[in-house]
């Protein structure tokens, strides 16, 4: 009995800890235009990550299946984040743009900022509370 | 996934710089009003030329050809123009905004003509059809709740002209890819990528065909927020020969260009681009206080140019150009009123017939002295035209005769009601007036099969009779314009007025 109680206490402690430090972010992608290649979803927590000067907090790659898709990031501390999505439609391992720098494959950002350029981190930033969050990103 | 590479490429300075300049923002909607247009149309039936289509296809309708088609004449006139201009209680305000509809006017060879038309299935049109409202950036009107676009082709309306290369038909618009169409069905095959790194780079609505059948065209990088001109050379077989970037000293607008046997000539109109948000034509303002910069580009070195300067002139379309004794002479239609040039026929687009005015114009010649570098405009004494065309077989050292819709006598609509040929060297104009109630469009030159002399052939152009509410087509002898149509055909309906066409002769 004593031992069981100890295990129970330890489990509760772990669960409490998880609740405090392991928020979940559920990202639903919309308007996936083609069903080829890979969709890359990067989660960053600051300008450095957004500007490519630091690795993303987490990143996922998935194969498209239908015009929507879901990605779940787990074990995240509460805080500010931004999501960047690129769809490597031809699977060549690159996000292709033309000779003028105009993107020719799908992409999207958290908050779906309506700008014809890469948004700033602030434009794409959202707060992830400890309770977790679900966001929608529309690819263009 | 190579995460670092994916981040770096998305974050590349080039991407940010280039697409940053064409920032899309929400802007208070200045909605055109479909009800106001419908009211206007009731009182002024000629506004049918600017009425929105409401179905993806028109026709087919087969009608008798009146008069007598000349021996050897046969084929299809393809035309393009803005056609879908209203959705969900919202009407575009700028003529250049509507989604493109391509028409085929086929002379069947048995005394009948068949017309049919189909909307170009661009990504923009296809998604907006599904949504039941306008979603994306247009050329001149901000739409409510505008959605972000991936790139310029997401907003491409493919609405300005058509061209045929090696039997392949393309719908063209100045700010994006050519869209290939099936020449028989007019169904859309898709945007053309001439080379993978050139996807979506503008391929303008005014390509010119060289004597060897190859095609020159340009793409305005200024429309993408940069400076420079992409110069395209497509072989007669439809394969890309070269794509070169010409650096330009100014941020210039150009809609079309002119060509001699040895050179391409680009006239860059200076403009300022406001940071007020909104669409291209809402933000751009011609800068008439600054000079036009003119590039004379050798065809054998298209990334180089000899530059000239001449007074500002608001020009969309050029006629021919020729080269003689170290001088290039090119012909152009100048819009005399810069505000009207900025939004041509805007009152008609809004349904305000009472205030509608056709943009006044003058035919100018630009003389470029290749030795001294001097440039000057010269007034030809002619005007009141647009959409000039000519016989490309004209010798390279003399001026071509121009064919263009024009105004002759009274007219119900403030638009062209006639067609004329202009021999600028002899100062001669020959016109045929279609009538009080007829609106006349571009007339395409069609050479007589087997002929070699310039201007031996016909002109074919489309019409809209406001009184009978029928659109039609006329064929005239190019050398006897003043004798009027040899043959005409009228449809049992009207179609929106458009911009440019090309004639595919039947072999």
Q: What is the compact description of this entry?
A:
Chain A contains three helices and eight strands.
Average per-residue pLDDT of chain A, rounded, comes to: 89
Distance between the termini of chain B: 53 Å
The share of residues in helices of chain A is 10-25%
Oligomer: heterodimer
Key structural traits:
A: 140 residues, alpha+beta, five-stranded antiparallel sheet, three-stranded mixed sheet, 3 helices, 8 strands, B: 507 residues, 7 helices
Description:
The complex is a heterodimer of chains A (140) and B (507). Chain A has 140 residues and is α+β, with helices and mostly antiparallel strands. Chain A has a single domain (23-138), classed as Immunoglobulin-like (Sandwich). Helices cover 20% and strands 36% of the residues of chain A. Chain A is built from 3 helices and 8 strands. In chain A, strands 2, 3, 5, 6 and 7 form a 5-stranded antiparallel sheet that branches. In chain A, strands 4-1-8 form a 3-stranded mixed sheet. Chain A is globular, with a radius of gyration of 18 Å. Chain B has 507 residues and is mainly beta. Chain B has a single domain, classed as TolB, C-terminal domain (Neuraminidase), CATH 2.120.10.30. Chain B is built from 7 helices and 33 strands. In chain B, strands 16, 17, 18, 19, 20 and 21 form a 6-stranded antiparallel sheet that branches. In chain B, strands 1-7-6-3-33 form a 5-stranded antiparallel sheet, with no helix packed on it. The N and C termini of chain B lie far apart (53 Å). The model of chain B is unreliable at 1-30 (pLDDT under 50).
């Amino acid at each position: 009995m004593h031992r069981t109680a100890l295990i129970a206490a330890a489990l509760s402690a772990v669960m409490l800890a998880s609740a405090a430090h392991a928020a979940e972010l559920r990202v639903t992608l919309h308007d996936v235009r083609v069903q080829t290649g890979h969709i890359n979803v990067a989660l960053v927590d600051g300008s450095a990550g957004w500007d490519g000067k630091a690795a993303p907090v987490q990143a996922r790659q998935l194969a498209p299946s239908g015009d929507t898709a879901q990605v779940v990031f787990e074990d995240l501390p509460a805080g500010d984040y931004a999501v960047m999505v690129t769809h490597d439609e031809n699977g060549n391992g690159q996000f292709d743009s033309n000779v003028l720098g105009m993107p020719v494959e799908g992409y999207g950002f958290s908050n779906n900022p309506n700008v014809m350029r890469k948004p700033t981190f602030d434009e794409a930033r959202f707060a992830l509370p400890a309770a977790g969050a679900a966001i929608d990103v529309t690819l263009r | 996934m190579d995460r670092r590479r994916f981040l770096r490429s998305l974050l590349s300075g080039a991407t940010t710089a280039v697409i940053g300049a064409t920032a899309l923002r929400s802007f208070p909607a200045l909605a055109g009003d479909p009800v106001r247009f419908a009211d206007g149309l009731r009182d002024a039936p000629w506004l049918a030329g600017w009425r929105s289509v409401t179905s993806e296809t028109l026709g087919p309708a087969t009608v008798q050809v009146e008069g007598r088609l000349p021996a050897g004449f046969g084929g299809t006139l393809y035309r393009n123009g803005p056609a879908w201009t209203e959705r969900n209680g919202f009407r575009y305000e700028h003529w250049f905004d509507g989604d493109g509809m391509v028409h085929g006017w086929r002379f069947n060879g048995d005394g009948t003509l068949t017309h049919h038309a189909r909307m170009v299935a661009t990504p923009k049109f296809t998604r907006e059809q599904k949504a039941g409202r306008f979603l994306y950036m247009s050329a001149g009107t901000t739409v409510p709740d505008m959605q972000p676009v991936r790139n310029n082709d997401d907003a491409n309306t493919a609405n300005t002209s058509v061209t045929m290369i090696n039997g392949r038909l393309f719908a063209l618009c100045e700010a994006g890819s050519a869209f290939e169409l099936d020449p028989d069905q007019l169904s859309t095959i898709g945007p053309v990528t001439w080379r993978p790194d050139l996807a979506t780079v503008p391929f303008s609505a005014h390509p010119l065909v060289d004597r060897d059948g190859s095609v020159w065209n340009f793409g305005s990088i200024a429309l993408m927020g940069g400076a420079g001109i992409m110069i395209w050379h497509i072989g007669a077989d439809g394969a890309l020969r070269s794509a070169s970037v010409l650096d330009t000293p100014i941020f210039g607008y150009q809609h079309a260009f002119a060509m001699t046997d040895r050179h391409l000539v680009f006239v860059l109109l200076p403009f300022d681009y406001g940071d007020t948000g909104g669409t291209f034509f809402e933000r751009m303002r011609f800068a008439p206080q600054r000079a036009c910069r003119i590039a004379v580009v050798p065809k054998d070195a298209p990334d180089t140019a000899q530059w000239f300067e001449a007074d500002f002139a608001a020009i969309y379309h050029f006629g021919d150009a020729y080269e003689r004794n170290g001088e290039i002479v090119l012909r152009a239609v100048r819009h005399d009123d810069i505000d009207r040039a900025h939004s041509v026929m805007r009152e008609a687009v809004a349904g305000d017939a009472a205030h509608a005015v056709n943009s006044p114009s003058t035919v100018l010649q630009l003389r470029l002295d290749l030795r001294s570098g001097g440039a000057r405009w010269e007034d030809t004494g002619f005007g009141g035209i647009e959409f000039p065309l000519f016989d490309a077989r004209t010798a390279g050292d003399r001026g071509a005769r121009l064919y263009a819709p024009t105004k002759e006598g009274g007219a119900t609509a403030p638009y062209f009601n006639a067609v004329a040929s202009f021999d600028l060297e002899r100062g001669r104009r020959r016109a045929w007036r279609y009538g009080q109630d007829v609106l006349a469009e571009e007339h395409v030159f069609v050479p007589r099969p087997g002929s070699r002399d310039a201007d031996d052939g016909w002109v074919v152009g489309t019409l809209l009779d406001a009184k009978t509410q029928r659109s039609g087509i006329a064929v005239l002898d190019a050398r006897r314009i003043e004798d009027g149509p040899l043959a005409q055909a009228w449809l049992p309906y009207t179609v929106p007025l458009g911009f440019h066409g090309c004639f595919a002769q039947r072999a």
